[in-house]
Amino acid sequence: MVDAHYNEPRLVALYDEDNSGRWDTDFYAGLIGDEPRRVADVGCGTGSFAVRLAQAGHAVTGIDPAEGMLAVARTRDGGGLVTWLHGTAVDLPEGPYDVAVMTGHAFQCLLTQAEILETLEAVRNRLAPGGTFCFETRNPAARAWLDWDSAAAGPEVQESSAGTLEVEWELVSVREMPDGPLVTFEDRTRFLADGAAFASRSTLKFVPAELLAQLLEHAGFSSVDWYGDWDGGAFVEATSREIIIAARCRTGARAARGVQGTG
Fold first, then answer.
1. Are 232 and 136 in contact (CB under 8 A)?
2. Please, which of 6, 197, 216, 232 could form a disulfide with 66 given CB 3.0 to 4.6 Å?
3. What is the pTM of this model?
4. What is the pLDDT of residues 194-239, one digit of tens each?
5. Is 242 left (phi over 0), alpha (psi -120 to 50) or beta?
6. What gap in Å lies between CA 42 and CA 61, rounded to an integer?
7. In this structure, what DSSP letter does residue 11 have?
């Protein structure tokens, strides 16, 4: 189910302001390179990265499960350069694509091993020979969720294009699971101009690197580059805050489906 935050128009309108940093998309743009590629942006959100890639000369398909996000994507400057689709990775056309990206920690919205594997296999089966899937997930060892509660400090006052906001966060639960923690948190936004208030509760999966490597192999990715930060530093399991992946497949989509069909 899509979190209400991603369909509520007043919150969607603030999404790009809340996520204005480019360190992640700059990193992925560098991996993709300047040569024109066929790119699938999975979980494209409001489409800022998809449009950036299209304006750089790539053929881009952006897909997202939140219609509210896609409504913004379709109307942004340059939006006509991108093919926009409603859905998830399994709803992507066959392609093939040279690159697939999944930014904004969207990978952590996949809450079970079955959902993760379904997504990995769906992307894998749509990549051309030598194609790459780039995505990131927070390293559970860093316990980022410890910063996701504002109870001690109280609401934070922020200025936005919609006026002054009061924003607060609550860490609702951390459920330790054999395949990595499930963390539930709630963020609350109040528009001081009219008092309108919205609450959004989300659950994210924190997958350990060891399990992630196994799932990537099972899904048919033949080699993986691991990074621990947006400067391209090596992933260190004990200290890195991020697990950043560039996973490649040796054979193409048709060959992969042929192999699966023999089993």
1. no
2. 6
3. 0.88
4. 888 888 899 999 999 999 999 999 999 999 999 999 999 999 999 9
5. beta
6. 8
7. H
**pLDDT tens digits, one per residue of 88-123:** 999 999 989 999 999 999 999 999 999 999 999 999
More confident residue, 142 or 5: 142
Cα 172 from Cα 170, distance rounded (Å):
6
**The tokens of 138 are what?**
């927070």
- What is the C-alpha separation between 54 and 38, in angstroms, rounded? 10
- C-alpha to C-alpha distance for 204 and 212, rounded to whole angstroms: 15
Handedness of CA 64, 81, 48, 160 (dihedral sign): negative
Q: Which residues contact 110 (CB under 8 A, 6 or more apart)?
A: 116, 119, 205
pLDDT at 24 over 80: yes
Angstrom distance (rounded) from CA 4 to CA 11: 9
**Helices then strands, each counted (H, E), the chain:** 8, 11
Mean pLDDT on 67-71:
90
Q: Is the previous residue joined to 96 through a cis bond, with omega within 30 degrees of 0?
A: yes
Q: Which amino acid is at 221?
A: F
